[in-house]
Amino acid sequence: MDCYFRQYWRDSRLSFLGPIKSLSLSIKMLERIWRPDTYFYNGKQSYVHTITVPNKLLRISQDGDILYSMRLTIKAKCPMELRNFPMDRQSCPLILGSYAYTTKQLVYEWQEGSSVNFIHGMTLSQFDLMSSPYRNLTFIRREGEFSVLQVSFNLQRNTGYFLIQVYVPCVLIVVLSWVSFWIHREATSDRVGLGITTVLTLSTISLDSRTDLPKVRYATALDWFLLMSFFYCIATLLEFAGVHYFTKVGSGEIRIDEKEWEEWEEITDKDHNDKLSSMTTYSPQSVHPEGVAARKRGPLMCSLYN
């Protein structure tokens, strides 16, 4: 985060009289005056910009009011709860205070008015900034009580990227797996190939979606969605395996037991031949009732889950 960090305090020892109301001094004067030892409690890596010169400002008014401003880039820790990812909201705090001075020596307060401002038109690629409340706190350490300031950045994640890259492709792949319900049950290679292709495609999408996601010990909302997508695609394969196993005999021949086979050899007249040809069987070209039911169950269950 880039920011202009401004601190105000009064040092009556630096007050002066004259026609000039304020003086802008060189930053070399910072070593000769007192200034607060402010640091960021949850900061990980912060630095002051130095191009083309150190980005610092020191200004003193007649009554001893001091403005000390600098341009910082702050990298701070933000604990996140990702169970609802990517439809989650996060609150990232930034805590600052004195390192050595207790509340008996130094007290921090937010400036009256708008203490936290943002550049107009500022946007984030993955989040929307909803609000930024701030407050005064007191931290207790072994050295004593310390005055600190906290500002919280309440963020809401944008789901557009995940809708385009994950959710919509997964839904289309699951719908594509239902095509196997209309493929002939004897076309084994076509059905199996379609099922395996959908599972492998979902695996690729799952790996890509977790590239930038921290490794957490619990499942996120996106993980559950991908898991259910895997379930529907694998259920399609299992449905085909069940229909194929319970309805197919050999290469599609009609099952005839030994007794019926002997009776068939003795048939010579046309009436018996007509009777045999009218026997109800599941031919290789017929559609099994389980296959018809699967055409209805699959889309209905997926729609209810989503």
Walkthrough of the structure:
- GO terms for molecular function: chloride channel activity; extracellular ligand-gated monoatomic ion channel activity; ligand-gated monoatomic anion channel activity; transmembrane signaling receptor activity.
- By secondary structure, the protein is α+β, with helices and mostly antiparallel strands.
- It has 3 domains: 1-77, Neurotransmitter-gated ion-channel ligand-binding domain (Acetylcholine Binding Protein, Chain: A, Distorted Sandwich), CATH 2.70.170.10; 80-113 and 122-158, no CATH class; 160-305, Methane Monooxygenase Hydroxylase, Chain G, domain 1, CATH 1.20.58.390.
- It has helices spanning 160-177, 188-209, 221-247, 258-266, 270-277, 289-305; strands spanning 2-10, 22-25, 38-40, 43-48, 56-61, 65-76, 89-98, 127-131, 134-141, 144-157.
- Strands 1, 2, 4, 5 and 6 form a 5-stranded antiparallel β-sheet that branches. Strands 3, 7, 8, 9 and 10 form a 5-stranded antiparallel β-sheet that branches.
- Strand 9 (134-141) and strand 10 form a beta hairpin.
- Helix 1 packs antiparallel against helix 2 and helix 2 runs antiparallel to helix 3.
- Residues 275-287 have low confidence and may be disordered.
Brief sketch in words of this structure:
With about 300 residues, the chain is an alpha+beta fold.
Blueprint (SSEs and pairs):
Layout lengths: L1 E9 L11 E4 L12 E3 L2 E6 L7 E6 L3 E12 L12 E10 L28 E5 L2 E8 L2 E14 L2 H18 L10 H22 L11 H27 L10 H9 L3 H8 L11 H17 L1
Antiparallel strand pairs: 1-6, 2-5, 3-7, 4-6, 5-6, 7-10, 8-10, 9-10
Organism: Microctonus hyperodae (Parasitoid wasp)
GO molecular function: chloride channel activity; extracellular ligand-gated monoatomic ion channel activity; ligand-gated monoatomic anion channel activity; transmembrane signaling receptor activity
Pfam family, one: Neur_chan_LBD
